[in-house]
């Protein structure tokens, strides 16, 4: 029988009851998030004996490959995308609060109706011909990134009956090599779906969950143009941002 939201809520509560205090990263097999049993690694990591060979066979990029307009997801097509325009900015920091410069930051997201511009997304919400939902930029000398985009909508995801994911933006960060990729998600304040989302609730520590939710910043909002959200990403240490591992 298909699980209901009530079933999932009970499983989340049970997982919270046995979670270790202060633990940021959840178990790779998190029962309320059904597909983790199929997607997380079950074998030991493979030791790379020649890291340089891995780099030679992988993608590469340089500063000139990232253009200024890549960070504005609202101007990648001829027309204006539909929905609520937003500005998202923040800093990428190390555990001591020092900026991480020259970091490649990529984002991807659903459109305002909650649909991805991807062939695998069969959600019967409208596609937006003027919004692809992907962008990238390099952090500046202060570790700062900035994107202009549209606020994404919630969408169903079939984890259980009547399952809906809260609005979010996926973030990918690269270090000095493509083997140093980190992936996480940014959420929006005040979303009633937060408490019902197994992916967000897999982060059992409340403070760590809170660090995944952006702050609305009225001073960042642009008059007659966009609302502003601020979200910093801390790569390690006690205040680290949750990073998806083996998802």
Kindly summarize this structure in a few lines.
This protein is α+β, with helices and mostly antiparallel strands and 247 residues long.
Notes on the protein architecture:
The protein has 247 residues and is of the alpha+beta class. The protein has one domain: Protocatechuate 3,4-Dioxygenase, subunit A. 14% of the residues lie in helices and 21% in strands. It is built from five helices and eleven strands. It has helices spanning 5-18, 36-39, 51-57, 198-201, 206-210; strands at 85-93, 104-108, 134-138, 144-150, 155-156, 164-165, 168-174, 181-187, 215-216, 227-230, 233-234. The two termini are 25 Å apart.
Low-confidence residue ranges: none
> How many strands?
11
Query: Biggest sheet, in brief?
Result: 5 strands, mixed
- In round numbers, the mean pLDDT is 89
Radius of gyration using CA atoms only: 19 Å
Predict the CATH topology. Answer: Protocatechuate 3,4-Dioxygenase, subunit A
Query: Helical percent range?
Result: 10-25%
* CATH class division: Mainly Beta
Shape: globular
Q: Which SSEs are present, and which pair or pack?
A:
Blueprint: H1 5-18, H2 36-39, H3 51-57, E1 85-93, E2 104-108, E3 134-138, E4 144-150, E5 155-156, E6 164-165, E7 168-174, E8 181-187, H4 198-201, H5 206-210, E9 215-216, E10 227-230, E11 233-234
Parallel strand pairs: 1-10, 1-11
Antiparallel strand pairs: 1-4, 2-3, 2-7, 5-6, 7-8, 9-10
